[in-house]
Amino acid sequence: MLQGMQRIKGLIALVILWSGTECLPANAAAVASSQQFYVLTSSSRLADKVVERAEEYCSRIRAEWLGGHLPATRTPTSIYVEIDPKRSFARTVIDPLGKRHMVWLVGSEEAVTDYLLHHELVHVVLGAEFGESLPVWGNEGIASRYDNQRRHDLRQTQLAQFVATDSWPDLKTLFESPVRQRWQYASAVSVSDYLIAQGGAEKFVRFLNDSSTDPAHSLNEYYAIQSFSELQTSWQQHVRESLDEKRSSEAVATLPTSASRYAR
Ligand SMILES: [Zn+2]
Q: Does the keyword Signal apply (predicted)?
């Protein structure tokens, strides 16, 4: 999740404290760093692991979405990690003083070294490249591709509800809104996937960067989609067809079991 500045005063206060290293959180006993990252967490082993994974994920994200392009200026990203298997929390904010990114992760070790970290680092990499200019829906649409299977499944359930009730979010409104609710994430990820399937990852990022002022114009320029109405219709059809294909493939996957049962 990419947190807007207006809603993060408490978090900013926390991260400024530990970024200054004058007053670290009580459970942050170890530090590991690289050229790009400064990690605070409870053990040296975990700090090293987070730095290593962060470097790996950043390289992958840049290769996949930016053609391997490195930002002109790089300031270290601070990552604060707290292990708590009962929680799952992630935020990326921009330090208003140093203009550098700060990431706060709370969860199981698997979560904070895998999908939570990967998701937040998408925001860091895109933020380093484009500042805060990318539309939130697209930013989350890319980052959420790295979520765990449970979140993917929840979003599929949400899409199935859109189809079952024939009640759909308005994409023009989505493009202009914050992304906070599950239906907003489900829509943002789905329409992102739809456009990425048409032209690839790097083209989608270029479209996002150009679309912040006039998304309708950019839809036409990049995807030959004439209007939001056309996008709305074609995306809804894509969702219906994707769900039908998924159901068909799941039905096929169960055939051998059924066949063997009836052959007895
Ligand atoms: Zn996010």
A: yes
